[in-house]
Design a protein that fits this description.
By secondary structure, this protein is an alpha/beta fold. The chain contains five helices and five strands, in the order E-H-E-H-E-H-E-H-E-H. The chain has helices at residues 22-27, 56-65, 81-89, 99-108, 135-169, and strands spanning 6-19, 42-45, 76-78, 94-98, 119-130. A five-stranded mixed beta sheet has the order 3-2-4-1-5, sandwiched between helices. Strand 2, helix 2 (56-65) and strand 3 (76-78) form a beta-alpha-beta unit. Helix 4 (99-108) crosses helix 5 (135-169). It is globular and about 55 Å long. The N and C termini lie far apart (57 Å).
């Protein structure tokens, strides 16, 4: 079997955080904490990964945040996370952002984190290669690992600042 000769090496973990446009939050000042969320305001990636349920990321984040929100399926559903992110940018609701995909938007202020905490996703990014790697494959893996390490430094600094900002906003 071909799959037995492959190995998956995790190169980057993923973190989930709610994201919305500043205009959306200005139009919904009642959203001061995760407890204030309503299902119809949520933007979902209905196919976060193969086998994930349509509300998987929001359900996971809410569990970790200690918030119970029945009726998650009432939110708007998209078949791609970038579409949910685009809807958040357009002020249509709050998306569950994946840090790797929303970092630039957060840094530019086009999206903000209304409340935390950032939550480690059940998904992560892997490099899949043959078990017997060639020198070229090792070079690619080394480059990807270095890029992921640089990204992780930027991401973690931004997540710390966003977490601090959302703590201030909720008080």
């Amino acid at each position: 079997m071909l799959f037995r000769s492959l190995v998956a090496t995790e190169i980057l973990d993923e973190w989930l955080l709610p994201v919305a446009s500043p205009a959306f939050l200005a139009a919904h000042p009642q959203l001061r904490s995760a407890a204030d969320l309503r299902p119809e305001l949520l933007l979902h990636d209905s196919s976060a990964w193969d086998g994930a349920g349509p509300c998987e990321e929001w359900a996971h984040w809410l569990r970790q945040a200690g918030v119970e929100l029945p009726g998650l399926e009432q939110g708007h559903h998209f078949n791609l996370s970038l579409l949910a992110q685009g809807a958040a940018l357009a002020g249509q609701g709050i998306a569950m952002g994946r840090a790797a995909l929303v970092l630039d938007e957060l840094a530019a202020g086009r999206l903000v984190v209304p409340f935390g905490p950032p939550v480690r996703s059940r998904a992560s990014y892997h490099f899949v290669s043959p078990m017997q790697r060639t020198a070229r494959t090792e070079n690619v893996l080394a480059w990807l690992t270095a890029q992921a390490a640089r990204f992780r430094v930027q991401r973690d600094a931004l997540l710390r600042s966003e977490e601090h900002t959302s703590e201030l906003q909720s008080h």
